[in-house]
Design a protein that fits this description.
Radius of gyration: 21 Å
Largest sheet: 6 strands, parallel
């Protein structure tokens, strides 16, 4: 069973729905049943930095694993790098075919970094191979209307890729505060303050 590079072990039961009151819980729980997998449908999750895109995608991946489905999790940058490395070793076609067959591929942080040649063609080829053949979950900080910005050197390639991604896709927009809050140091206790003052005057 493929379970590569999950960044967290959070399950859907641990997901903080209360932090995202506008999120369609019914849709998320329906997706957790895995029906989209039999439909070979994509799931596209967008939202601001830290709002919980990866933390929603990964629990859906865990749900799929529980159902006996092979899952691969990777950032878009790592995915492009692995395909490029395969090209260098003349194993590109084999690598592409392997990735195309994964029942559930989770592509994290799509568009975080612009896709330069040959990465833009590689990601297009992968999405094209998977279209209507296997399910893909994609997370992105970009709004849906900005996804073409991920392909700054080839807008035609952008249109072709995005058209395939959005075909029959379940689209989820997350709105809410960032879940990445800094830790605040506790205020010094009176005893510490007294000791500090004493040492300062000693």
């Amino acid at each position: 069973m493929i379970r590569a590079s999950f960044r967290a072990n959070k399950t859907l039961e641990q997901f903080d729905f209360d932090r995202l009151p506008k999120l369609n819980r019914a849709l998320v729980h329906d997706l957790a049943t895995g029906r989209y997998l039999s439909e070979h449908a994509p799931i596209l999750i967008v939202g601001e930095v830290g709002v919980g895109k990866s933390h929603l995608a990964q629990p859906l991946g865990h749900c799929a694993i529980r159902q006996g489905v092979d899952v691969l999790f990777s950032s878009c940058t790592q995915l492009a790098a692995s395909l490029n490395a395969a090209r260098v070793t003349n194993t590109y076609e084999r690598k592409l075919a392997t990735l195309a067959r994964v029942p559930l591929l989770i592509v994290d942080d799509f568009g975080l970094k612009p896709l330069r040649p040959p990465a833009d063609e590689d990601i297009h080829d992968l999405i094209a191979e998977r279209c209507e053949q296997a399910s893909t979950i994609v997370t992105s900080n970009l709004d849906f209307g900005e996804w073409d910005e991920a392909f700054p050197n080839n807008r035609l390639l952008a249109s072709a890729t995005i058209d395939r991604l959005r075909h029959n896709a379940y689209c989820i927009e997350l709105e809410g505060p960032s879940g990445r809050n800094p830790k605040v140091a506790p205020p010094p206790s009176k005893s510490r303050l007294a000791n500090g003052q004493k040492s300062a005057h000693s």
